[in-house]
Amino acid sequence: MKRGDEMNLSKLEKEGKKWVDQGIISEEQLNVILNNYPKKDANILVVLFAVLLTGLALITFIFSDWAQVAHLSRVIVILSFTLFLYILGDQLYRRKQTLYGVSFILLGYIGFSASLFLVINNYNLILHSSWPFIILAIVGLLLYTIYSHVYLYYISLIALTIGQLYGEFSYVLFILLIIGFSYFAFRYTSKLTPHFFGVSLVINLIALATSFSAYYYWFIIYMFIFYIIAELTFKKEVANVFKFISLSSIFLFNVFQAFYFQEDYILDGNLELSGLFLVVLLILFGGFILIKRITFKRADYIYLILFIPTLYLPYPLLMTIILLFVFSSALLIVGYKKDYRQFITYGTLAFLLSTLTVYIEYAWEVMNKSLFFLIGGLILFSFSFILERNRRKIKEKGSVK
Amino acid sequence: MKRILFYFLLLFQVSVVLLVVLQYNLIDKYGAEITLITQPWEEEYYEDDILAYQDYTFEFEINTFAKDKWVGEEVNYQTPVFVLLKENQSGIYEIEKVTDKEIQTNKSKEIVLQGTNLYESEADFFHVDYGFETVNVKNHQDLFEDFKVSEETEVTFKFAPWKQTKLIQIN
User: What is the ipTM of this complex?
Assistant: First the structure.
């Protein structure tokens, strides 16, 4: 986030000098423009790395031989150190040393996480649920409400996500994500909160879907709901991030299915089709069409292709591959026709991924490896050639107008 | 307000950690004593090294069970299973039945354990993990002194109702 802004600023400076030379703007005007973009503090990265390293030191120390001895005195030493970090951080924060303050709070949080797992391990507590992660996520989220620094949001979201991947699916963590963390993502408290939230949500939903292995394909519904919520989100920045994450997840899901269906046993009675799934899906399709009718974004109908459950069709493997190609070609065609830059970029990417999927699927086993890479490269060359020709055509058309 | 929340959070974190430690000392009072028997290892080379390791993972008789003990439908690898153990004449706990539904027992010589990672280890036999098999050797050095992995050994644990265990004895 910070880096991006910095690069933009230096680019602006460069471009601005050209404009001054060309006499478009004066030197003073350039300075006024540049001053509107505050210079970012490079120190933040240094501090971040300092926190990372110290945090790692803390974790390795807590899991060292010294700490592995189950004795109350050692627990108290570790806890006092954690408290010291927290209070130091709080004091610094109150003296307006925000960055250092938050860094020490972060270290305190890492210290607490490590000591919690240390005592669970040392004092033989059997973990059958992810309660330590629930505690960590709640503490982290509350710390974020106090200090409202985005690092605290990230670290508690990471704790939550790891907890979800550990063992059984935890509904408590999921509800915490939906109720607690989503609030800050929708509020757009920082540039990257929707990104982090979206990715964590997708991981959570994958965990949810795979916890019912015979019904894993409900993931399609979850992503569809996520996408529709994204459509309904007012804040455009947040909506765009959510749309991108949900659509790319469902696309990758289809790529995954293309590989998954290759194993014959999967389709031989290891999956259970459910009627309820179709009903819910139909309702969602209806909702989607309704939204698009109101907003008049007809091109977006292409996205519907991605939510077709190929599993229910005859020849699911073939259908999935066709789906991938129809989707990416549709993006490209509409993109070129209406000159939607974004459609062209994503269409190209989707087309490449689809080609790669099919290519790996059918050629990896049978072909000589060197030939495999060679032909793959040739396919990409010809593909880029076609794209380039198309681009030129459009440019010519544009200049004629 | 935020000040109060901050200090409350500190207090909360400290108490969570200390509670785990405190509970460990309460196991002696509230825990149920259970003796299990190990499955001997064949690898001899492991023998002398035990004390040098940080952790040791026991392999008990109750970690494997025959298919006919299983009651219920087929389950996923991650699904928790519930194991009913019963004490036999010689004071060792053995598997009575395993199921995917939660079970309760109030009888004195029975206990229910929760297991995970169920998989078919060999034909008609299942393997299950309970989560208490791994023990810190350094913390129980005196108990491990005469332990031999190649012999069937009786190991006694105390099980607390809040799912915490304590290694008591290795014979």
Answer: 0.86
Residues of B in contact with A90 (CB under 8 A): 6
Distance from CA of B149 to the nearest CA of A (A): 21
Residue of chain B with shortest Cα separation from A116 = B17
- How many CB pairs below 8 Å do chains A and B form together? 90
- Reported as a single tens digit per residue, the pLDDT across B85-104 is 998 888 899 998 899 888 88
Q: Which of A34-48, A309-323, B156-170 has the lowest mean pLDDT?
A: A34-48
Query: How confident is the model over A160-191, as pLDDT tens digits?
Result: 999 998 878 889 999 999 999 999 988 888 88
Task: Give the sign of the dihedral formed by CA A256, CA A216, CA A204, CA A328.
Answer: positive
- CB burial of A102-141 (b: ≥16 within 10 Å; e: otherwise) equals bbbbbbbbbbbbbbbbbbbbbbbbbbebbbbbbbbbbbbb
8 Å CB contact of B164 and A127? no
pLDDT category, A2, cuts 50, 70, 90? Answer: very low
pLDDT band at B139 (very low <50, low <70, confident <90, very high): confident
User: CA nearest A356: which of A386, A390, A388, A324?
Assistant: A324
Which chain A residues touch B if contact means CB-CB below 8 Å? 65, 68-70, 72, 75, 79, 82-83, 86-87, 90, 112, 115-116, 119-128, 135, 139, 142-143, 145-146, 167-168, 211, 213
Confidence of residue A86 (pLDDT cuts 50, 70, 90): very high
Q: Which of A68, A71, A72, A123 to mutate to test the interface with B (most CBs of B within 10 A)?
A: A123
Region A13-19: mean pLDDT is 83
Q: Of A72, A75, A211, which has the smallest distance from its Cβ to B78's Cβ? A: A211
Q: Which two tokens stand for residue A174?
A: 């999921």
Q: Looking at the predicted structure, is the pLDDT value of residue A4 above 50?
A: no
* B chain contacts of residue A69, beta-carbon cutoff 8 Å: 138-139
A38-60 tens-digit pLDDT: 666 667 788 888 888 998 998 88
pLDDT at A3: 41
Q: Going along A172-315, which residue ranges are E strands?
A: none
With contact defined as beta carbons under 8 Å apart, do A196 and A248 qualify?
A: no
Quick check: pTM over 0.90?
no
Unique residue bearing structure tokens 């004195």: B108
pLDDT of residue A142: 94
Mutation site for A-interface testing, chosen from B1, B11, B16 by largest number of A Cβ within 10 Å: B16
Instruction: Compute φ and ψ for B56, nearest 5 degrees.
Output: -130, 135
Are A89 and A151 a contacting pair, CB within 8 Å?
A: no
Q: Does B136 touch chain A (CB under 8 A)?
A: yes
The amino acid occupying position A244 is F
Chain B residue whose CA is closest to A117: B17
DSSP state of B118: E
A213–B76: do the CB atoms touch at under 8 Å?
yes
Neighbours of B171 (CB within 10 A): 11
